Amino acid sequence: MAIPRRKIEEIAAIFKLEPSTRHIYVEGERDLDVYGEYIKVNSVNRSIYAINNIEVPPELTARHGLTDGNKQRVVALAIELSALIPDANIKCVVDKDFDQWMERLLNHKYLYYTKYSCMEMYFFSSNMFIRLFNDIFKVDGVNLEQLRNSIAECLTFMFAFRMANDKMNLNIKVCEIKNEIKILKGSINFDYEKLILRTLQNNGQSKLFQIVLHATLENKDFLKGDPRERARGNDYVEVLSKYLNAVGKGAIGTPEAIRSYFMLLAPQDHEIGELIA
User: CA-to-CA distance for 141 and 21, rounded, in angstroms?
Assistant: First the structure.
């Protein structure tokens, strides 16, 4: 039997009865798992909920000029709660995605963005990357700085292509990055042109190849700074999984397993703590 979704008015009533209540609302179950693990292990006095457990109807998101995705529902929740209970301890956390680069960041009282493009990027710092490969994956004889840099380059190209898809309103399903990467001894090569062409062919838009390629390369030149601000979480996980399979670590390198390692490391990450404290 499905658990009824909590109404926004019910949340407001809880805070009016118990002003010291502390809530955090996130986009999905993966965010709930990672941030929830930090809260549990570090005994943080805050309850956490995925937006799917809250009733945010399409007409409400539409009223605020938003679509009906999970991220937009979290944003709508932040707007509504700020009007109903303006002095509560609430955090509605969403991924930055392309918003920073496309000047779409919103400013609402209870709305908080991840420090980097998404939750998974907290686990792409140099320190976390080294811990993953040395302590968990136990991959030896590899220059991890070189490997991380090559992964960052792959992820940036993929992010640039996804950003072109967004800016051009193509609304096409992008092919998975894992099908166009090659594993070398200590690095990864990504045939981004082949992925762009195959994606467009799969969506009946191959005639747009040169235009989309040009837009992608322009975006790539524009995306500077910390590589964690120009990557998508699922792409990162897929690249790690492909690499681990190639070096004989397939048993511990499934996407599900990798995400479980993120949960394992989350309680030790001070930047996650800053976000959800």
Answer: 50
47-50: strand order across its sheet: 47-50, 22-26, 89-94, 111-113
**What is the C-alpha end-to-end distance of the chain, expressed in Å?**
33
Q: Could you report the per-residue pLDDT of 64-109, keeping only the tens digit for each?
A: 999 989 999 999 999 999 999 999 999 999 999 999 999 999 999 9
Residues 6+ positions from 65 with CB-CB distance below 8 Å: none
Query: What mean pLDDT comes out for the span 217-224?
Result: 98
Tokens of 178: 């894992």
Q: Which residues contact 26 (CB under 8 A, 6 or more apart)?
A: 32, 35, 48, 49, 50, 51, 74, 93, 94
* 3-class secondary structure, 93: strand
- Domain-ending residue, one of 58, 82, 113: 113
- Asked whether the beta carbons of 26 and 35 are under 8 A apart, the reply is yes
Closest-CA residue to 199 (of 190, 209, 189)? 209
pLDDT over 90 at 180, yes or no: yes
Structure confidence at residue 2 (pLDDT): 60
- Global pTM reads 0.95
275 is a domain residue: no
The whole-angstrom separation of Cα 10 and Cα 6 is 7
**Residue 101: both structure tokens together:** 């680069």
Place of tokens 């499905």: 2
Which residues, in sequence order, are CB contacts of 68 under 8 Å at separation 6+? 58, 61, 62
Q: Which residues span the domain enclosing 66? A: 6-113
The rounded Cα 256 to chain-centroid distance in angstroms is 15
Helix (H, G, I), strand (E, B) or coil at 142: coil
Give the count of domains, the chain. 2
Domain-embedded: residue 253 = yes
